[in-house]
Amino acid sequence: MTETLPEQHTDNVQNGWHGYLNLAYANRNGETQIIRNQMQAPLKVQRPFYPEGKEVCHSVILHTAGGVVGGDRLSLNFHLQPSAQALITTAAAGKIYRSNGKQSRQNIKIQVDAGANLEWLPQETIVFDGAIYRQDLRVELAVGASILLWEIVRFGRTARGEKFLSGKWRSHAEIWQQNRPLWIDRQLIAGGEEMLESSHGLAGKPVVATLAWVGEPVTSEIVEKVRALWCEKMISPSSFAVNSSVGVTRIPSGLLCRYRGSSTAEARDWFVGIWQLLRLSFSERLSCLPRVWINS
Predict the structure, then answer these.
(1) Which contacts qualify for 174-180: CB closer than 8 Å, 24 or more apart?
(2) Under a CB-based contact definition with an 8 Å cutoff, are residues 254 and 222 in contact?
(3) Could you tell me whether strands 146-155 and 125-127 are parallel, antiparallel, or unpaired per DSSP bridges?
(4) Range of 99's domain?
(5) DSSP states of the chain as a string?
(6) What domain count does the chain have?
(7) What is the mean pLDDT, run by run of 10 residues, along the chain of 296 residues?
């Protein structure tokens, strides 16, 4: 079911977009289908794709306004009913523009029922100098469900020589199961040279990234394999890895990986390798790259 919600009776240029996307997935005789699709501009979703068979539904989210400005409010709600499997990504890199003094916000609520699996793999986010942005993500994970999610962020349009010298970026993520927190992560980056250059901040590196897998305990063998994936990058003569830093940690029923460096492509390549390893370990399925990534 697809439903376009009524337009807000506000001046979107002055007051910001109040976009909304509500997707529900269900397993129908072995095929994962979108059974509810409610949307309000500037958010929408492309038609479902099934590049790896009917069991896994690939969805691509579009932000038709091209980027987020001060005052924007975006809400994303995903519900995977029992045994549904979905991969959700974005059509392009997200852009958080310089603020007019107002904060922009994105709220993501995810419910994954028993036996279901969600892969929330958005493309990178570029935070412009002067942006004021906050993202809140909360996952309700049933026993027997699993989720893989990542976030890759570049601070400043570094290709143009821009640094994140003013503004503020916040990211709050939580995964809960039966009223018990499995992972809570809160990050704050305030623009300015102190944060950019501090070894406790960005250490001169404009890209930070986080990958979290929660669903089943990981073995020490998997942790070592993930670390070995990074070591392989470090010996590549064309890699930025020698100037980057990473961390790999086991968390309750899962795995947490961090990246701080200079290349969003390098972070994603490492994350894709981890994704491939986790898929083979827990579902005996090869990873299937979304086709929108090919030209991005």
Answers:
(1) 174/137, 174/138, 174/139, 175/138, 175/139, 175/141, 175/147, 175/212, 175/214, 176/138, 176/139, 176/140, 176/141, 177/140, 177/141, 177/142, 177/143, 177/253, 178/143
(2) no
(3) parallel
(4) 2-293
(5) -EEEPPPPSS-HHHH--EEEEEEEEEEETTEEEEEEEEEETTEEEPPPB-BTBTTEEEEEEEETTSSB-TT-EEEEEEEE-TT-EEEEEESS-EEEPPPSSPPEEEEEEEEE-TT-EEEE-PPPEEE-TT-EEEEEEEEEE-TT-EEEEEEEEEES-GGGT----S-EEEEEEEEEETTEEEEEEEEEEE-SHHHHH-TTTTTT--EEEEEEEESSPPPHHHHHHHHHHHHHHHT-TT-SGGG-EEEEEEETTEEEEEEEES-HHHHHHHHHHHHHHHHHHHT-------GGGTT-
(6) 1
(7) 45 71 97 96 95 96 94 97 98 95 97 98 97 98 98 94 95 97 96 89 94 96 94 67 86 95 94 96 88 76
